[in-house]
Amino acid sequence: MIHRNIFFDLTALVASNLEIVCSLCYSIYINTEIDFGNKGVMMPTIYDIAKLAGVSATTVSKVFNNYDEVSQKTKDKVNRIAKEIGYIPNLGARSIRTKRSYLVGIVFSEDAGLGLEHQFFSVVLESFRKEIGKYGYDTIFINKSLGKKEVGYLDHSKYRNVDGLFIITAKPNELDFNKLINSDFKCVTTDMTLEGIPTILSENHEGVKQALDYLREMGHHRIGHIAGPKDTISGSERQEAFEDYIQSNNLNKEDMVTVESDNFNRESARLATLKLFRDHKRPTALFVSADIMAIGVMEAIKSVGLRVPEDVSVIGFDDIEIADMISPKLTTIRQDKVSIGHSVANTLVKMIEDKSFEYKQQRIPTTLVIRETVNKMT
Known about the structure:
Blueprint: H1 2-14, H2 18-31, H3 46-53, H4 57-64, H5 72-85, H6 91-98, E1 103-108, H7 119-133, E2 138-142, E3 145-146, E4 149-150, H8 153-160, E5 164-169, H9 175-181, E6 186-190, E7 199-202, H10 204-217, E8 223-227, H11 233-248, E9 258-260, H12 266-279, E10 285-288, H13 291-303, E11 313-318, E12 331-335, H14 337-353, E13 362-364, E14 366-369
Parallel strand pairs: 1-2, 1-5, 5-6, 6-7, 7-13, 8-9, 8-10, 10-11, 11-12
Antiparallel strand pairs: 3-4, 12-14
């Protein structure tokens, strides 16, 4: 009879407050005198918090759901007690109530030529994961495969029932990828531009200006640019900024030569540097579109019997971890990778949770980091 009464009581409560119901069910389960190997270990419930805070369970539920009708003083008290006793919200109840999975997908293409081990993307991703976790979201990788089966990005996202997507790397001309970005899924990206998709980018033009201003301050007037591929936003914007700088400062184009690398990697940059040395008058300094490319540039310089920075100065872009480990240490333009990850996470959460949210493009400032690869001309 007791169990039947509990059942009817719970049924009556479902419509009014699902989280309280789930918490009560869990409380009944965890206190049942059945030995599961953890007898005596009890998880805190909203009823425990309510008792300690001197409020009702309904009030506690409203605090966790950020209702405006609850005072800030009560919210602070409830949240403090919840943290002190180690309360973990019931995700199942939350998901049913909000009609969300609290799962976001990380989209990347294995064919894009940039793996997740790339030091720029790995730091951005970790920053994104930590920040979006503060809102209660977990992350999962989305590619074109599900186990051994080829399913495509869109179907994989549907299968996982994600609330939104962070697109890290992809090939925009892929048919299935176009289906994804034209779907109803909320998407945010970085380091690439997609029509209708919010993008968080560094101030590429300002970063290039910082690099070239510094090189000229150090007495360099013949500056080469080892550029990234133009089919990427970072490669194209940095090339464009380099050309704009030449025009705005009335510089001699013959002294400011650009050679485009086939890819953002060491080997492509090494070959591009050798091509520049072969086809043009040797510059006294090289501005390189990415730090990982700058390593290949320095290898090319050394391979022809020249020294960095005594014969050719080098400045990169990114400030990845290895920039401070190589010898000589790389002078570079720092992208604030942590801020980019945070901005992507905050933007995606707002898109998911606020239907009225209107996105404005965000540009994250860059910083000049002076180390050892730029020599002062005498």
